[in-house]
Specification:
By secondary structure, the protein is of the alpha+beta class. The protein has helices spanning about 5-15, 55, 195-200, 225-230, 235-245; strands spanning about 20, 35, 50, 65-70, 80, 125, 130-140, 145-150, 155, 170-175, 205-210, 215-220, 225. It has two domains: about 1-175, Gamma-B Crystallin, domain 1, CATH 2.60.20.10; about 175-250, no CATH class. It has five helices and 13 strands.
Length: about 250
């Protein structure tokens, strides 16, 4: 959001990654996706939730990527993206206008010139890419905080997560061969980030060193802060973010 600079640079990077925005049904048997019922439910509970077929409806030519819809519960869409995309304002979708989107801004450059776009216009989303987790960033060019979405997982309603109509870029990361635990095992972060991670841990965040780049993860909302974002934020900004976190229950 608020990315009126660097438009030409961003669109040149983003165009090559776009797969399409129309729904299609695959002939190959899909990998299952999993619904998470609310922003407060931890993704570690996903294995106990019934699998759904949403990745089938958004599969394009046998490929599973990131799929998303304008409204909650997988309505109006899906859009389908492959790979890393630094600016969702390049990809048009005609119904991405208020009240379905957070902004009235129209992208002035090709390929979405003069049309509403997927930027700040997603209310439900699936990661249909086997073996990769996804980070959905609040700002262009993979900046700002991000929403963490494991492989083969869906979120039917982003309303309670802080990311409803608020996604502007995305990246995929491979799951380590040893697996990806969402539990904090007490591992030490890099020395330069130790104070910041300590503050976040005190507010219920977790340090996940086994991700491709190391992230701080907040299970109540699935929010994530990448290592680069932790470096960029000041300790005061981290403390302010921690103060806004809901108090932990006795069970956590």
């Amino acid at each position: 959001m608020h990315r009126r600079t660097r438009r030409v640079w961003i669109v040149s990077l983003a165009v090559a990654s776009w797969i399409g925005s129309g729904a299609s049904t695959a002939s190959a048997a899909p990998e299952p996706s999993v619904d998470i019922d609310s922003g407060a439910q931890e993704l570690t509970d996903a294995a106990t939730v019934a699998a759904t077929n949403h990745c089938t409806t958004c599969n394009t030519q046998g490929y599973f990527g990131l799929c998303f819809w304008v409204d909650k519960n997988y309505n109006d869409g899906p859009g389908n993206l492959n790979g890393n995309n630094p600016w969702w304002g390049s990809f048009r979708h005609n119904s991405c206008k208020p009240p379905h989107a957070a902004s009235t801004a129209i992208w002035p450059f090709p390929p979405a010139r003069g049309n509403p776009t997927w930027n700040d216009c997603v209310s439900s989303v699936c990661n249909c890419k086997p073996g990769y987790y996804a980070l959905l960033y609040r700002d262009y060019a993979y900046r700002g905080s991000s929403y963490f979405l494991p492989s083969l997982t869906c979120m039917p309603n982003l309303q309670n997560t802080g990311y409803n109509d608020a996604i502007s870029s995305n990246k995929f990361y491979p799951i380590p061969r040893s697996g990806l635990s969402l539990n904090d095992d007490g591992a030490k972060p890099p020395r330069a980030l130790a104070d910041k991670v300590s503050v976040l841990r005190g507010a219920g965040w977790r340090w996940l060193p086994r991700t491709a780049h190391g992230i701080a993860y907040y299970p109540r909302t699935h929010e994530a802060l990448s290592r680069s974002e932790l470096r960029r934020l000041t300790l005061e900004e981290i403390e302010a973010r921690a103060r806004k976190a809901p108090p932990r229950s006795s069970a956590e």
